[in-house]
């Protein structure tokens, strides 16, 4: 639950227009009212505080079928929105001089140096151009170091590193997690909490969920008959999505998609990143120069999305809106500045921040619908959120 200190007395104190904010809330509520979704949660933040957060509908917990009211305390699996959080932690490892993105992964993880992967760089991994998008990894093997390293050794390339873009749904971030552990000497989940979450007051944002909190998490569910994933998302199957209802999988903290949070936590995560690396209470998470460096687009024009055949605008683990008129297809709606950055998640989770306006947004739902409905909703939510500036 967002603490009282996180919430502004009124939206106008943050330069947010109350009526525009209510329009955003009404759009989120509409999907619940018309039966498209069972629940939805949305939050907007600026100047280090929440302008508002709303939750609508009902959810199920612990594998049961009983519907209970969703509240601002309800937590959701945020899927690939997790990538930005682990990415930000990796930025701090670089800022501390412990890692360079030009380094070869095999120089950090010798077990990775097999099957043509010897020259892959950290930067290529962070930009999803490393060539092993479909590398398999059972989440429950992560705790066993021997199995983890054996998997890295077994992985093979799908294509030559750097030559194309293809979304690495989980494989790239398993590598980043291992790099964090080797360079910091800490479990990656502990490092993320100590360096990113706790200093930002995000105690209810989890990467590795404690068992006693499972009853607070909305179970994921398919609200329409699921279809096979589109190109480049082959690992994100309907059955794989449902595994995130298992307590043992939530406990792992899958670095590419296993975060658990609410919309308020997602919106607040981006606040220091759009405010020079500083939280509302003056705590510095990282240098402004680090954020500017990490959110610079590094992919090339030929690194194109497999579905829309458009430049992907990838920075270091995050997507950048861009000024080519295609930001709405990248998850930013039609109203953000070109500098907005963030990362969405399967099912329609939204998380981004805009350095030009200072606005950040989080949106969560547990319900999976068809791609067209989800896409239209995402454009509407992000566009309305970006327009809330007074």
Average pLDDT metric: 94
The main pleated sheet reads as: 7 strands, antiparallel
Question: Spans with pLDDT under 50 lasting ≥5 residues?
Answer: none
Roughly what fraction of the amino acids lie in strands?
A: 5-15%
Report the order of strands and helices.
Answer: HEEEEHHHHHHEHHEHHEEEEEH
Shape by Cα distribution: globular
Cα separation of the termini: 26 Å
Please give the radius of gyration in angstroms.
Answer: 19 Å
Strand order of the largest sheet: 3-2-1-10-9-8-7
Helix content: 25-40%
Count of individual helical segments: 12
Q: What structural class is derived from the secondary structure elements?
A: alpha+beta
Topology readout:
Elements: H1 18-33, E1 39-46, E2 49-59, E3 68-69, E4 76-79, H2 82-95, H3 105-108, H4 122-126, H5 145-154, H6 171-184, H7 188-197, E5 221-222, H8 238-242, H9 247-252, E6 259-261, H10 263-270, H11 288-294, E7 319-320, E8 341-342, E9 350-353, E10 360-364, E11 367-368, H12 371-386
Parallel strand pairs: 5-11
Antiparallel strand pairs: 1-2, 1-10, 2-3, 4-6, 7-8, 8-9, 9-10
Helix pairs in contact: 1-12, 2-6, 2-7
């Amino acid at each position: 639950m967002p603490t009282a200190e996180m919430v502004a007395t009124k939206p106008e104190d943050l330069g947010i227009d109350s009526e525009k904010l209510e329009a955003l809330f009404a759009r989120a509520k509409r999907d619940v009212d018309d039966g498209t979704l069972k629940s939805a949660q949305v939050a907007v933040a600026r100047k280090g505080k929440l302008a508002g957060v709303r939750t609508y509908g009902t959810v199920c917990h612990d594998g049961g079928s009983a519907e209970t009211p969703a509240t601002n305390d309800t937590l959701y699996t945020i899927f690939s929105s997790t990538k930005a959080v682990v990415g930000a932690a990796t930025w701090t490892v670089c800022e501390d001089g412990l890692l360079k993105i030009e380094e070869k992964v095999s120089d950090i993880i010798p077990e990775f140096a097999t099957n043509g992967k010897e020259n892959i760089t950290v930067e290529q991994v962070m930009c999803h151009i490393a060539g092993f998008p479909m590398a398999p990894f059972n989440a429950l093997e992560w705790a066993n170091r021997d199995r983890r390293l054996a998997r890295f050794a077994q992985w093979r390339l799908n294509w030559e590193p750097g030559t194309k873009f293809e979304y690495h749904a989980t494989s790239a971030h398993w590598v980043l997690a291992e790099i964090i552990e080797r360079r910091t000497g800490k479990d990656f989940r502990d490092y993320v909490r100590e360096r990113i979450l706790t200093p930002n007051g995000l105690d209810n944002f989890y990467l590795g969920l404690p068992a006693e909190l499972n009853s607070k998490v909305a179970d994921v569910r398919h609200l329409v008959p699921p279809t096979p994933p589109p190109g480049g998302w082959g690992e994100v199957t309907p059955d794989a999505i449902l595994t995130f209802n298992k307590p043992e999988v939530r406990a792992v903290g899958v670095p590419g998609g296993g975060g658990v949070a609410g919309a308020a936590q997602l919106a607040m995560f981006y606040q220091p990143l759009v405010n020079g690396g500083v939280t509302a209470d003056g705590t510095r998470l990282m240098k402004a120069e680090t954020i500017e460096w990490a959110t610079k687009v590094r992919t090339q024009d030929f690194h194109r999305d497999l579905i829309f055949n458009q430049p992907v605008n990838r920075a270091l683990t995050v997507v950048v809106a861009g000024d080519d008129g295609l930001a709405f297809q990248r998850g930013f709606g039609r109203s953000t500045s070109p500098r907005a950055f963030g990362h969405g998640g399967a099912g329609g989770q939204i998380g981004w921040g805009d350095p030009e306006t200072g606005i950040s947004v989080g949106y969560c739902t547990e319900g999976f619908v068809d791609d067209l409905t989800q896409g239209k909703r995402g454009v509407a939510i992000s566009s309305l959120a970006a327009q809330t500036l007074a």
